[in-house]
Amino acid sequence: xxxxxxxxxxxxxxxxxxxxxxxxxxxxxxxxxxxxxxxxxxxxxxxxxxxxxxxxxxxxxxxxxxxxxxxxxxxxxxxxxxxxxxxxxxxxxxxxxxxxxxxxxxxxxxxxxxxxxxxxxxxxxxxxxxxxxxxxxxxxxxxxxxxxxxxxxxxxxxxxxxxxxxxxxxxxxxxxxxxxxxxxxxxxxxxxxxxxxxxxxxxxxxxxxxxxxxxxxxxxxxxxxxxxxxxxxxxxxxxxxxxxxxxxxxxxxxxxxxxxxxxxxxxxxxxxxxxxxxxxxxxxxxxxxxxxxxxxxxxxxxxxxxxxxxxxxxxxxxxxxxxxxxxxxxxxxxxxxxxxxxxxxxxxxxxxxxxxxxxxxxxxxxxxxxxxxxxxxxxxxxxxxx
Length: 386
Ligand SMILES: [Zn+2]
Fold this sequence. Notes:
Blueprint lengths: L3 E5 L2 E4 L2 E3 L2 E6 L2 E7 L10 E4 L5 E4 L1 E6 L1 E2 L2 E2 L5 H12 L3 E8 L4 H13 L7 E8 L21 H10 L4 E6 L6 H10 L3 E4 L6 H9 L2 E4 L15 H8 L4 E4 L8 H11 L4 E3 L12 E5 L2 E6 L2 E3 L12 H11 L4 H7 L2 H6 L17 E4 L5 E6 L2 E4 L1
Zinc ion binds next to loops.
């Protein structure tokens, strides 16, 4: 017998609009149908989820840049840590994410990648793959990344890591100015890996060359990269201006001034922006002393910094990023949700199954109340949070 769930009451986000007075039916792992209320016959055998009309039913949120949460970090290289992150993210409406690594020693990387590859991941949010943040980055723009483990482009190493990860590396952050980076970018593309410019001191010209060779993504645009100078427009300008590049932004009110968020939105448009958290283990834990990729981090008033004051990841949640986006810019709720669901699904090439609500798509669903807090999360037909 097929497992069914039925959502009633709330407005449903579909095809860029809020649909009212409809019922959404889930069968097994998929969205089966969306029907007008009057056309639906009550099914007593289904799990019924009824919420008020002012609640929202939206696609599951997808975070392509997250290191940890609830005291756990991907770099802990343990199934327990991954499980803790997956459960914590479910409570924030995230149904899928890229487990994001830091620049670390070869031994640690090997251990992290094989742990993720072996992780069963049956509960909580789904790990959609791995985001390698480094190690081919700029020593001068390392941010909270450990400088001593930064490496020059090394294709055999990436191939070895992709084997350890059983093909789950989906995105690599690298610096376009490094020697021999262009052949590596082309090779990563051939392996089906998204190439992202980040932690970089690349010039405008160097960044454009990387884009021409297959770099299509920007890691936390503006943060840890060469900024705009009137005679040297820098990596930021190349990434802002190229129509081929999707840009991650950390909209916590700290990494980017609200005016810069508005500027990015106007230049890139809602289709090419992705909300990410870049969250670290202190998320959901409160202030205190933590670590990120082996470096000590102090969290005060939800702001994570290294001892020298460098911002070290965030404690941001995706719903909070959405609420900030609405506050900082002129975008609509529908646009902000798109930046946290459909756009990341598209970057991953998963938009046929994930990132929006339509019959036949994966039943990755989130119920939000009018204050945009998560009331319930479903991943592939299974309730993972309420
Ligand atoms: Zn990061």
